Amino acid sequence: MSKKILLTGGLGYIGSHTAVSLIESGYDVVILDNLSNSRKDVLEKLKKITKVMPKFYFGDARDEGLLIEILKQNVEAVIHFAGYKSVYDSIKSPIEYYDNNLNCLIRLIDAMNKTGCRNLVFSSSATVYGIENISPLIENMNMGTCTNPYGRSKQMTEEILKDITVSNPEFSAIALRYFNPVGAHPSGLIGEIPRGVPNNLMPYISGVASGKYEVLNIYGNDYDTRDGTCIRDFIHVCDLADGHVKAIEYALKNNGFDAINLGSGNGYSVLEIVKAFESTNNIKINKKFSERRAGDIAISYADIKKANQILNWGPRYGIEDICRDTWNFEKMMFQDERV
Ligand code: UD1
């Protein structure tokens, strides 16, 4: 019988791609999602891609009764994606962020303890390295200073997970530290659907390409980098999804806490990404330089040896695949919206 994995927030951007990878690897996927930043029609898209419709529960990950009901059905592991992720909103509404991001986790662990499920993979972020650590960022560095509640909620979650594995040595918790997830499933059926105007770079570039936005603002061209724009580590969301499958395999066999970077291990500047998007898709991106954005650091990219060694994971997709799949998804979404 295939192993059952619960994905909280499984209809979101990274959750939905992970659902595909898990199903294709033979797992039985159950999704809990409150649709606060996702759409129910993603379920149909998952079925189109995998020929399997995952079991879906509409609900909040703070609902412990519901969590217990789901976990009781022989769930072997949980991947906890459910959480808010906007840096900007977290500064405006810190209590909402701490309530959602921390209480979901606490209720989930309580429900896991009550039902005997001991394997957890958590969506962490490179943001936990803070502003002082120098790239390449390595897991054994101390977490640094975060400039916002979103980042601090990720740091606090990692600390809580460490405490859990100390109090219960049979518990397995893996915090996957995502760098910059981008791209979309090559089918164009699932991808990132930002609510309102996106804050992140890639959805903004594709929005300019499709004419939704007039011009891309490049935040700062006076950083101490090769072309003056910030450097980031862009990782294809399908590679990221495969990393979750590997993390589940590892969690099922090992105990304790591990933080693991999921990135490409390479840094690209904002200008390089824009150029790659233009040349891959043969399309011009209207852009202008503007002021630096508060809280941005000049350079962030991962050391990915740990993921390589302990998960036997590495990226398969390159920057051109990322640009092609992002644009492909944007065009499909555009068609959908016009129907
Ligand atoms: C951001 C968050 C990070 C979070 C991640 C989730 C901040 C400071 N950091 O990462 O905590 O984990 O998203 O995906 O918000 N840029 C432009 N023009 C744009 C948008 C972005 O020039 O319209 C630049 C930014 O200044 C940055 C780079 O593109 O240098 C990447 O930005 P973004 O995609 O927002 O990711 P991060 O800031 O790295």
In the CATH scheme, the class of one domain would be Alpha Beta
CATH superfamily of one domain: NAD(P)-binding Rossmann-like Domain
CATH topology of one domain: Rossmann fold
Spans where pLDDT lies below 50 across 5 or more residues: none
- Beta content comes to 15-25%
Enumerate how many helices there are, as a single number.
11
In percent, how helical is the residue content?
Answer: 40-55%
Sheet with the most strands, sense and barrel status: 7 strands, parallel
What is the alpha-carbon Rg in Å? Answer: 19 Å
Largest beta sheet: what is the strand line-up? 3-2-1-4-5-6-11
Could you tell me how far the N terminus lies from the C terminus, measured between alpha carbons in angstroms?
A: 41 Å
What small-molecule ligands were found?
uridine-diphosphate-N-acetylglucosamine
Oligomer: single chain
Specify the overall morphology: globular
Provide a descriptive summary of the structure in words:
There is one protein chain. By secondary structure, the chain is an alpha/beta fold. The chain contains eleven helices and 13 strands. The longest helix is centred in the first third of the chain and has 22 residues. The protein is globular, with a radius of gyration of 19 Å. The relative contact order is 0.14. The model has no long low-confidence stretch (mean pLDDT 97). The site of uridine-diphosphate-N-acetylglucosamine has 20 residues, from helix 7 and strand 8. Uridine-diphosphate-N-acetylglucosamine binds next to helix 7 and strand 8.
Summarize this entry quickly.
The chain has 339 residues and is α/β, with parallel strands linked by helices. The chain is 42% helix and 18% strand.
